[in-house]
Design goal:
By secondary structure, the chain is α+β, with helices and mostly antiparallel strands. A 4-stranded antiparallel β-sheet has the order 1-2-4-3, with helices on one face. A two-stranded antiparallel sheet has the order 5-6. The protein has 3 helices and 6 strands, in the order βαβαββαββ.
Length: 107
């Protein structure tokens, strides 16, 4: 299910390659359960469940860009977070993506 994320979190930005490489490689964080996502405006972020195993952030970002101005994505196992340009884009994405099939899985 897609929903707007309301908590503060730390997610690497695709515009900052240093963040991506560290997180993609599994580096960073305290080693005690992962890193904290740093979300500046939670009204622009959605949380997705039902993400198929092996999904890359690039695949998810391209998928989310079909429904709005998605700026970044981070896959966290079977869940993911996607940041949008505006809160309106995020709200629209929630309505559009809820229950949609993505790579054989229902979001």
């Amino acid at each position: 299910l897609a929903q707007v994320i309301l908590a503060q979190a730390r997610i690497p930005c695709i515009d900052r390659p240093a963040d991506l490489s560290r997180d993609i490689m599994g580096w960073g964080g305290s080693g005690k359960g992962g890193s904290r996502m740093d979300i500046k405006d939670p009204t622009k972020v959605i949380w997705l469940g039902g993400i198929p195993q092996g999904t890359s952030f690039q695949e998810l970002l391209a998928f989310a860009q079909q429904v709005g101005q998605a700026k970044w994505a981070q896959v966290l196992g079977k869940t993911a977070a996607v940041g949008f340009a505006t809160a309106q884009d995020a709200n629209s994405a929630v309505a559009t993506l809820n229950g949609v099939s993505f790579n054989g899985s229902q979001l």
